[in-house]
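Researcher: Last one for today. Full complex below.
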Amino acid sequence: MNVLTILVVMVGLSVAGYYLGTRQAVGVAGGQRSRLHSLPSYHGLYLASWVLLPAVALLIVWLIVEPHVAEQALIANLPASVEQMDPNTLRLTIGDIEARALGGIVGREVAPEFQPAAEAYAATLSISRWLMAACLVAVMAIGGLLAFRSIGVEMRARNRFERIAEVIMIGAATIAILTTVGIILSLLFETARFFAEVPFFEFLFGLQWSPQTALRADQVGSSGSFGAIPLFAGTLLITLIALCVAVPIGLFAAIYMSEYATPRIRGTAKPILEILAGVPTVVYGFFAALTVAPFFRGLGQSIGLDVSSESALAAGSVMGIMIIPFVSSLSDDVMNAVPQSLRDGAFALGATKSETIRQVILPAALPGIVGAVLLATSRAIGETMIVVMAAGLAANLTANPLEAVTTVTVQIVTLLVGDQEFDSAKTLAAFALGLVLFVVTLCLNIFALHIVRKYREKYD
Amino acid sequence: MSAVELSPDAVGKNAPKIVARGVNVFYGSAQALKEVDLDVGEHEVTALIGPSGCGKSTFLRCLNRMNDVIEGCRVEGRIELDEDDIYDRQLDVVQLRARVGMVFQKPNPFPKSVYDNIAYGPRIHGVGQSKSEMDEIVETSLTRAGLWNEVKDRLQSPGTGLSGGQQQRLCIARAIAVNPEVILMDEPCSALDPIATARIEELIDELRQNFTIVIVTHSMQQAARVSQRTAFFHLGNLVEVGDTEQIFTNPRDERTEGYITGRFG
Ligand SMILES: Nc1ncnc2c1ncn2[C@@H]1O[C@H](COP(=O)(O)OP(=O)(O)OP(=O)(O)O)[C@@H](O)[C@H]1O
Ligand SMILES: [Mg+2]
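Model: Here's the assembly. Have a good evening.
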């Protein structure tokens, strides 16, 4: 039995439940809808929820538990010869058997001595499916019947459905939160494994980054070094360059839009600026690598400076362009939120427009602007594509923007692309870097949102 | 001076500080003021009254050109301050607003300290170079606005933290600090309780010694208490202007009478 078929049947039954509930409600009211506490459709919804929701919950639990039970059946039927097998090979064999039973494509035939195990596995699965279908039908029937029986003139189906709706919303929110927690936990566990191999302080404060570990113990350079300071420095350098581009341009654009532009110009200019945020970062990446970097190189040569063809300057300035809308749009919003009465007050005292902006509006909007810049910063720190393409991979510890540097995100990418074993220090380092990145941007975001919110409260 | 002939009651006893002739104001294509002629006498309080939307605020904003800020607003006619045309192209709006201060309906202190609120105007006009001069300006302005005793210990705390009535007096002090010749007030007491209102009315009466005041109000009692002359606006027209006592006891126009006796508006 296919899960999709089961789902379709369940939805169909609950739709039927809806109509049944509606009709029953009209029936008990003797055709006079006004006698009902709740509209008939609420009775229908109530019945439908009782048919569908418990069954869905059961289905989910079942699908989670089922593979484990089936695998137990498989293991129980393995031949005695497995005792001598290498655990890894055994794991692979079990995987093959399972994949074959589920209709997957497997390279190898199942060896005859594993035949009983394979059959037990398949049998358990098919029994489980039929049992599941039966249980689902039972649950839907019981739920539907109970709800059906409770339909009456006095029944507050409207209020009860409200509760059900609330539970559904809470469920959705919980899934979102649990996913986040899950991601954090997996980061934490992998990071812990990394720190079992590389000392914590060496990672955070080491000056040397060359994450190559040898495949065989007798190779040269067998131990990599995992000092992340060059990466942090590179990230910082590129972020700083990006901010130097984005903050002045974004801020001036915001001032123009909120204070000087007519509503029509503002209505056009703002969305156009925001399009910048929607350009795929890969596009920025090759813009940086193919246009901006050669431009800086040529410029450097013409004044006798040696600019490397992959430079922090190129990546940083293009990243700056990318985050302009973060600065401009949010700053424009907070400046618009400064009440008109403050502008009038300043004008009435004889202040000019630029005096009013500098001395009244900017100070009043400053917390919000700082928040906007912090959000842009965290965006810049997390940005990957542009840096991969334009800043290079060399983990130089330098403050010279004309040289190639690398960032945390770029290293994560290079550590993980291609075929990798997932238990070497090299790949685990990616998780540690990811965790650092996560913590830093999280702190920045919390701080920024806090500032923005505090500012909002002031004028509402 | 304008050569236009005027009905005798358009001109007051005191020498006129502001002379408005044939003022028309348009918001886009809608006309908000029609051919308004009005004199504002020096060292008196002139009250502008009339039903909502009749153009009182619009007229007030003409006097310090705050209408310039409003998109699509056009002013025609002639307004003179001490016989200088304030809509002259040569005239510097910034200078004009230093001479004609304004207090708004809702108190709008800057989100700065009490001290900086007062010092803001003098600073942008380059008055009060030294710290002691500025201290002096702040103290006299606050004293004249009747606020000094209440805030002298909290000059560095934010002006937005004061009570509504205190904030409004802070705004008056802020306007006074620039040492203007005229102060315009647009319903300065509408957000205040009766006690704060009474204090501000007293204050207006004192300020009359040194300043020329134009006040918009919706309260007949307030107009009667604080003003020497009253102008009644209706649907963008200046219907009647005269001594306050005459307007309230013996209005010439029946629209004025209807309004002050509460039959419409
Ligand atoms: N910024 C503006 N844009 C367009 N029309 C305006 C604007 N300000 C005022 N008006 C219009 O001009 C007319 C006069 O408005 P004004 O604000 O001067 O009235 P008012 O007498 O001050 O009323 P109130 O007593 O309610 O304050 C009204 O019809 C109003 O709708
Ligand atoms: Mg008004």
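The mean pLDDT of chain A is 86. The radius of gyration of chain A is 31 Å.
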